[in-house]
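For the sake of transparency, this paper describes our internal protein records without simplification. The record that follows is passed on verbatim for readers who wish to inspect the format:
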Amino acid sequence: MFVARVVGNVWATRKHSGLEGSKLLLVQKMDCNDGKIVGDAVLAVEQTFGAGPGDTVLLVDEGNSSRQILKNAKAPVRLTVCGVVDTVHSKGKDLRYH
């Protein structure tokens, strides 16, 4: 799992049937100690939380866990949004994202 910032949306004219009703988001990994972006943009699936550009999200990076979150055993996914982050408490201080 890791924390990331949503930096964009991806539109697809055709998607695998296992992704029906899901949004595709571009996310970049963040350093939880200072909130800085530390990674390249990657594609994540979002279905439940209404996350969009500018939001800070918690991601699960494992196929079986992602399929359980989406409640679809056949979805072709690995990286899935499992929550929207408001605050991270690390090293004795709070970082607020909203």
Q: What stands out?
A: The longest helix spans residues 63-70. The helical segments are 63-70.
